Amino acid sequence: MSSKYPKTMIYLHWFTLLCVLVAYFTGDYPPADGVIGEIHVFSGLLLILLFMIRIPLRLLYRNVLPKHNLSPLQHIAAHSVQMLLYIFMLLTPILGYLTLTADVDDFMLLGVTLPYFSVDISLGKAHQIVANGFIVLAGLHAIAALFHHFILKDSVLKSMSPH
Fold first, then answer.
1. Which helix (DSSP H) or strand (DSSP E) does residue 109 occupy?
2. InterPro entries given for it (predicted)?
3. Using CA atoms, how far apart are residues 115 and 103, in angstroms rounded to an integer?
4. Is 158 exposed, middle or buried (0-12, 13-18, 19+ CB in 10 A)?
5. Which residues of 56-88 are buried (b: 16+ CB within 10 A; e: fewer)?
6. Spatial contact of 62 and 7, defined as CB atoms under 8 Å apart
7. What is the largest CA-CA distance in the chain?
8. Average pLDDT of the chain?
9. How many CB atoms lie within 10 A of CB 44?
């Protein structure tokens, strides 16, 4: 058993963070934001793709992922936050896409009109609430990693380091 995550998982983790940050900082109202709106939608769609890659990889690597020496409470908290992050990583862009298709008849992304799903109500508020929850959870995740690194001085943060 390695003390580090497989490189594929490490790069996927940090690329996911990049997509989340891009989506967060470009999120306003994509139909009215031109290129910035396209970047927001593209990063959200990438999150769905990354989720679909991440789950099979977790299953593939489940026997080689590092096992950290956590208290029972830390283990429950870590597992709970991780599961919620996965749920929010999938739910946030889905709600965003449904909101987009409720608000506009068509949306061009990289010169291609995205498929349209008929939704009678805008889920914009739900998308925003879930997205903000996702950011809060990601922040807690980061704080926990920093706590492990600087206070507990264990290898939790180093296990996800690309170096």
1. strand 108-109
2. Cyt_b561_bac/Ni-Hgenase (IPR011577), Cytochrome_b561_oxidase (IPR052168), Di-haem_cyt_TM (IPR016174)
3. 13
4. middle
5. eeeeeeeeeeeeeebeeebeeebeeeeebbeeb
6. no
7. 53
8. 92
9. 25
